[in-house]
Amino acid sequence: MTRQTNRGRAAGVVIALTALMPAVALMSATPSFAAGVPCDSTLSPSEIKAVGISCRLAPATVVRVAEDLEVAVPEPGTVATVQLLRTHGSASPSAASVYRAADGQLALRIDGEAALGSTATAGALNRILAKPEPAGATKTQASLLAAAPAWCGSYTQYAFSGGVWVNSTYPWTYNSKSQPASDALQAIQYGFKFITDDSSACGTDWTAATSDYRGSTTRYTWGTRDNGNVVGWAGFDPGILGATYSWVDGSGFRVEVDIAFNNRVTNWFTGLSGTVPSGRYDLISVATHEAGHGFGLAHYTSSSYPVMYPTLGTGVNKRVKRSGDLTGMGVLY
User: Fold this and answer.
1) Same domain, 264 and 293
2) What's the CA gap between 21 and 23, in Å, rounded?
3) How does pLDDT run across 137-147, given as a tens digit for each residue?
4) What mean pLDDT comes out for the span 295-319?
5) Are the beta carbons of 17 and 69 closer than 8 angstroms?
6) How far is CA 233 from the centre of its chain?
7) What span, in angstroms and rounded, lies between the C-alpha atoms of 182 and 176?
8) Which residue among 41, 53, 143, 324 has the highest number of C-beta atoms inside a 10 angstrom radius?
């Protein structure tokens, strides 16, 4: 859950982890979040580590990783993840995952690194986010073009955030409220098309992943699980282009994904032209990135070539999958 400035968030508990960097070491003993007294104050990282903490998580409890990055604590046995695409130059955390055990204990990962939790809870989080592999599944390397452009990068440049869709299909609806232009949906649909394409200028890697657009909706609940996969617009802090919220069940399957684009960005480019005007953020490129998260791709930070790099600048076209994006989607589905 990112902080949204265009509407109020339901009153609830915030477990503040803003000062958590560098990551807190895993704990052999953990605080109790299953006591009778509700958690009713902001907890610092040192307090969360203290075995003496004893309170009950509220339905609206969120874990605050950074000022503009919050994750709602999920129901027991589930992992909730928030991933942000930031503007170029940002160094703030861009992803966080929270697991809640049956006894209320929490585990946390920030940008893919373990940050909080006992050995048992951290192990459960890692197990759930490991991609389920069908029995007998095999995967061959992507077919890369011999003369692929340098910007294609390497076929090894991909990472997973955890969980896959049952039957390889991501169903979603669209809320047009506060969209910047009438052609915004068309641009977003192109993003979903590009992330599920088998081929690009960088090569070919077959994937069974498909998106299923199911029309418009009035749902408006970013960051809160409500059994609806909604794509739309919300007002985020400056420096955020888009956010993906996902929930993965105990079997490692995606049960809900919401995507929101920042309606406070005033310089979106929603056109289809491959030449993105200078000073404009390309909505198709952002939609391709967020759709990648929707299917289970994580940020890849070791090279800026992939679509899944965690920042994007103005005037940049990153609509089609690079070599690593092709391989990643092929491995996932």
Assistant:
1) yes
2) 5
3) 444 555 655 56
4) 97
5) no
6) 15
7) 9
8) 324
Classify residue 299: in a domain, yes or no: yes
CA distance 194 to 200: 8
Q: How many CA atoms lie within 13 A of 253 on its CB side?
A: 9
pTM above threshold 0.90:
no
Report residue 26 as tokens.
């895993």
Report the alpha-carbon distance of residue 79 to residue 124 in Å, rounded.
10
Query: Residue 30's domain spans which residues?
Result: 14-129
Answer yes or no: is pLDDT of 45 > 60: no
DSSP per-residue letters across 134-201 = -TT------EE-TT--GGG--TT---B-S-B-GGGEEEEEE--TT-SSTTHHHHHHHHHHHHH-SEET
Rounded Cα distance, 295 and 300, in Å: 15
pLDDT at 4: 56
The verdict on residue 257 lying in a domain is yes
**15-35: b or e for each residue (b if 16 or more CB lie within 10 Å)?**
bbbeebbebbebbeebbebee
Q: Is residue 29 part of a domain?
A: yes
| CA dist., res. 150 & res. 50, Å (int) | 50
Residues 291 and 165 both lie in one domain: yes
Amino acid 133 reads E
- The first and second tokens of residue 212, run together, are 């299923």
* Closest-CA residue to 68 (of 197, 241, 280, 238): 238
Q: Which residues contact 126 (CB under 8 A, 6 or more apart)?
A: none
The stretches of the chain forming alpha helices (DSSP H) are 45-49, 119-129, 184-196, 283-295, 323-332
Angle at 309 between CA 6 and CA 211, to 5 degrees: 70
3-state secondary structure of 286: helix
Burial 215-251 (b: 16+ CB within 10 A, else e): eebebbebbbbeebbbbbbbbbbebbbbbbbbbbbee
* pLDDT tens string 251-274: 999 999 999 999 999 999 999 999
